[in-house]
Amino acid sequence: MAIEVIPIGGYNEVGKNMTVIKYGDESIILDMGFHLPSLIGFEEQGGDRRNLTTKGLQKLGAIPDDSILSSIKNTVKAIIPSHCHLDHIGAIPYLEKNYNAPIIATPYTNEVLKILAKDEKIQLNNEVISKKAGARIKVSKNIEVELINMTHSTLDAANIIVHTPDGKIVYTNDFKLDNKPIIGKKPDYKRLKEVGESGEVKALIQDCLYAGKHMKTPSESVAKEMLKDVMLGADNYGHSLIVTCFASHLARIKSAVEFGKKLNRQIILLGRSLSKYSQAANNLGYVPWLQDVEIVTYSRQVEKTLHKIEKNRDKYMVICTGNQAEPGAILTRMGAGNLPFKFLHDDHVIFSCNVIPVEPNIENRARLDRQLTGKGVRLFKDIHVSGHGAREDIRDMIDMVKPEKIIPAHGGKDHTLPITDLTEIMGYKTGKDVLFMTNGKKVVLK
Fold it and tell me: What single string gives the DSSP state of each residue in 207-252?
């Protein structure tokens, strides 16, 4: 019997990830994510997504349009997100009600999902089932799902293997081959190789975000050393010290906390997003090192805390939201002078992130950078390594998994086409063995 791969989102753009695997009269959904640039653009124009219906969000392009699945929605046996990033789980609260299927994911992914749904005041209809990496779950008569431990820029990420009687599909959105992670274990290479040696992998759905970069993505331990160099190696005595990074990047936050303590500074996390991801990790006992950190969430608390920091600026280290200069984020508002904190000459702001290369983010960050440098602030930018594998990581993944076909994913052709330079060398023929997909256009694997 044939296996069908139906891309719903994430094949024309970066984000909005959603893929259906169908075998006979049974299917599963992998990921249901936001398209964050669409949301950012809408909110920049004064919109509030809480005022939009599901159809409104789909019309905006912020969540996948799953109407193509209306004829097969009763075949869906499970919804399986790979990890907790919003471009993979953000649409679940809006779309899961369309299916009678449990949501199965690793503990941290599910904990973030529950907090997200609660924050949006949405009741999830389907059962949420947590399984640790390494688990195999029989979701229907003919489909079994396996969660493989994978490193990424958040906790509890998993690559997903879909087992059917006629072969396996390996789903790598998102992945990084980090041999020295700051939190958690390195990837389960042993199991990936076992799956590859079985000779049964019909297709590898491959994260190709950085397929065009001729490198191996550095370990998170490298980012830790970069952060150590600027926090402990640049003189910040007498000045404020602010670090901003992705709110879900608990490993990066852990490193910043460690070095903040070495500077004898009291550490404060500011912002709702940081609070959500930290709360989810704390609920599971993943972040004991956060016990000595003050977490401030609500507007009045933030303002009161910034008053306190301004009076004793060299006694504190702030970790805050706003690494992409998102509208309404703490650092964005501080830079614009909309919060009770005045930057002084030689204050330090560390951007432990990259700028996500979409127009709203690029423009917003450029504006924020100008605001900060105009106040004499010292900026330390790109103190970061990616959570996505580059070309040489992709080569290693293909070598381990040994798929018959490769389906490039996680972006439009500007991101996925560069893989062909690699796959041709490895003996895969473009169009025959390497299948470029677009949202809504299925492929049948025989």
Answer: E-TBTT--S-PPPHHHHHHHHHHHHHHS--TTS-EEEE--TT-HHH
Cα-only R_g, the chain: 22
Average pLDDT value for residue range 58-69: 93
Integer angstrom CA distances of residue 97 from 94, 100, 133: 7, 7, 26
C-alpha–C-alpha distance, residues 361 and 115, integer Å: 25
Q: What is the pLDDT of residue 202?
A: 98
Nearest by Cα to 207 from 408, 396, 34, 9: 408
**Cβ contact 340:303 at 8 Å:** yes
- Segment 82-94 shows an average pLDDT of 96
**Is residue 152 within 8 Å of residue 176, measured between CB atoms?**
yes
Instruction: Indicate the helix (H) or strand (E) that contains 379.
Output: strand 378-380
Structural domains of the chain in order of their starting residue, each with its CATH number: 3-216+387-445 (3.60.15.10), 220-380 (3.40.50.10710)
How large is the average pLDDT for residues 311-332? Answer: 91
Sheet holding 443-445, edge to edge: 128-130, 103-105, 76-80, 26-30, 18-23, 3-9, 443-445
In whole angstroms, what is the distance from residue 353 CA to residue 166 CA?
42
Would you list the DSSP string of 335-369? HTT-SS----TT-EEEE-S---SSHHHHHHHHHHH
